Amino acid sequence: MELVIQAGAMGKGGDVFVLDMGEPVRIDDLARKMVHLSGLEVKDDNNPNGDIEIHYIGLRPGEKLFEELLISDNVSETEHPLIMRAEENFIEYQELQATLLEMEAAIDNCDHATLRRLLVKVVFDFKPQCDIADLLYMR
To answer: What percent of the chain has pLDDT over 70?
Structure first.
């Protein structure tokens, strides 16, 4: 929390900061800790009488093992060693506003191709992973 407050004080408007959050935390460790902090026990082979069983289901579509905090690798140091300033590309407000209106029209007209083209235009490094498909029709 302290890093968030300090980064907020450094901001000049429109800044994006990346915080050094320390070592990654395994989801399994986090889940087990939450069970124990709730006053319960994990049910597993070592404790068949436990309260909560943890199921491992793997990654679902769109999920990933590691979160990327930056779009590019352009960062600069700040006065705080655990706070870095991201040097990311951005779209001018007027251009973004016009593109959002185009997106709204594409949505109203169910024009998936135009919507996808606009997303590729405004979301830097966005590379669609599949063809255009409406998930509702695929079910």
So the answer is: 88
CA dist., res. 135 & res. 129, Å (int): 14
* Residue 83, strand partner residues: 19
Tell me the pLDDT tens digit for each residue of 95-118. 999 999 999 999 999 998 899 899
H or E stretch at 32: helix 27-37
Sort residue 12 into left (φ over 0), alpha (ψ -120 to 50) or beta: alpha
Question: Maximum CA pair distance of the chain?
Answer: 61
CA dihedral 78, 83, 85, 91 (to 10 degrees): -150
Cα angle: 91, vertex 95, 97; to 5 degrees? 105
SS3 at position 114: helix
Mean pLDDT of 44-64: 90
Q: Are 84 and 20 in contact (CB under 8 A)?
A: yes
